[in-house]
Backbone:
């Protein structure tokens, strides 16, 4: 479901109708903002004519994302070979064959250079969408070959209205989730629908109160098998800190700064997090 990006929907529908879509886009913005959902809806529109998430199998769309079990959360050269084979085949049920690469920050240097070669001589009937939080996590030459589309946050009021209208939750639940979402509809949906949300909130509360528990949990969360959970957990930490800015500003500033550095550079996550959270110990 797409909410809050009506102008983008209209723009991409128009481009698709006239077959004026670019060969490639970088969809960027914060996590749980709707980037990947928008991309899947576009793929469904190209194949079935509806700008919604599909209930059908999309034969003209290949969805690539990091594999934390088999490849330690990276997207390597093997995936790019699959992409190339898929993208250069002629479409049957759509004007375009679409490849979505979620969390494209996980691309290895070799994989990025392989994508660059595809982008330099793109197939006429192919469309490649890279989905990232920050486009600067990709090499500049690769960025220059794609059109960048920014997905901004929505207002708290807009998120609350979505939860009331679409999720049918109570006013109290909608208000609480909207405040913690910070303009991210996907995050708001997860808060109200996740069975684990209460447990996560309790874990975060304990985390913020105990310096020794912080270090133990950080060591656990940066392990390869838990890396996919780290982003969600840290988002919850930041959201809780925002609720009392006067008290938590020093910690919040330090943590956000470290998270930004972690997103831009290949830094030791455990050391960065421990350094920023020293304020509470």
Residues:
């Amino acid at each position: 479901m797409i909410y809050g990006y009506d102008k983008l929907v209209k723009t991409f529908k128009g481009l698709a109708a006239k077959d004026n879509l670019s060969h490639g886009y970088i969809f960027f913005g914060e996590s749980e903002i709707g980037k990947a959902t928008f991309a899947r809806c576009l793929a469904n529109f190209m194949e079935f004519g509806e700008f919604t998430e599909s209930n059908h199998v999309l034969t003209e769309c290949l969805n690539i994302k990091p594999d934390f079990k088999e490849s330690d959360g990276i997207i390597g050269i093997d995936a790019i070979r699959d992409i190339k084979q898929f993208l250069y085949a002629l479409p049957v049920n759509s004007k375009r064959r679409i490849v979505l690469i979620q969390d494209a920050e996980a691309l290895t240097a070799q994989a990025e250079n392989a994508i660059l070669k595809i982008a330099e001589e793109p197939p006429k009937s192919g469309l490649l969408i890279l989905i990232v939080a920050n486009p600067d996590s990709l090499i500049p030459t690769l960025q220059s070959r794609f059109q960048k589309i920014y997905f901004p946050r929505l207002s708290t009021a807009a998120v609350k209205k979505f939860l009331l209208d679409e999720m049918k939750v109570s006013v109290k639940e909608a208000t609480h989730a909207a405040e913690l979402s910070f303009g991210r509809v996907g995050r708001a949906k997860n808060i109200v629908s996740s069975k684990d949300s209460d447990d996560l909130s309790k874990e975060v509360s304990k985390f913020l109160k105990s310096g020794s528990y912080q270090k133990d949990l950080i060591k656990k969360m940066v392990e390869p098998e838990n890396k996919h959970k780290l982003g969600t957990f840290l988002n919850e930490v930041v959201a809780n800190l925002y609720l009392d800015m006067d008290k938590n500003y020093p910690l919040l500033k330090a943590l956000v700064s470290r998270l930004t550095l972690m997103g831009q550079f290949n830094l030791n996550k455990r050391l960065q997090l421990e350094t920023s959270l020293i304020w509470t110990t």
Residues 107 and 123 are 21 Å apart (CA to CA). The beta strands are 24-28, 61-64, 97-101, 126-132, 147-150.
